[in-house]
Amino acid sequence: MTDIAPLFPRWASTWGELARTNALARSQCRCCGMQQRVDVSIQILRFGANGSPIDLRDKCMVVGCHGTVFYLAARTYGRQWIALDPRSDPRGTSAPGVNAVTLNIGATKPYG
After folding, report:
1. What one-character DSSP code corresponds to residue 94?
2. What percent of the chain has pLDDT over 70?
3. Which residues are paired to 74 by β-bridges?
4. Is 74 helix (H, G, I), strand (E, B) or coil?
5. Most confident of 77-81, 94-98, 106-110
6. Pairwise CA distance, residues 70 & 53, whole Å
7. CA-CA-CA-CA torsion for 50, 52, 56, 58, nearest 10 degrees?
């Protein structure tokens, strides 16, 4: 059986396209599962507008974690997040995604 090459939408192909279409980006650690917002404009400064988030690996920014992150993209809020990892479905082989909502650490009332 031949390998099937995954297809990614054009709007998620480069950091510049993500910025041009006002798409959203996240990173998710394979080790701890922590999801964090990604500032696309900062990624453009790091990798250039033609740099691609597809199959890009980076270090996890959580203190004490030594994992690597992969990137996810969504057209807008409420849309499905697309894992930008062509080798496999990273969500099936890594820690489940966690964020402030799933950890129940969001502020429910003002401080004071």
Report:
1. S
2. 79
3. 24
4. strand
5. 77-81
6. 8
7. 50
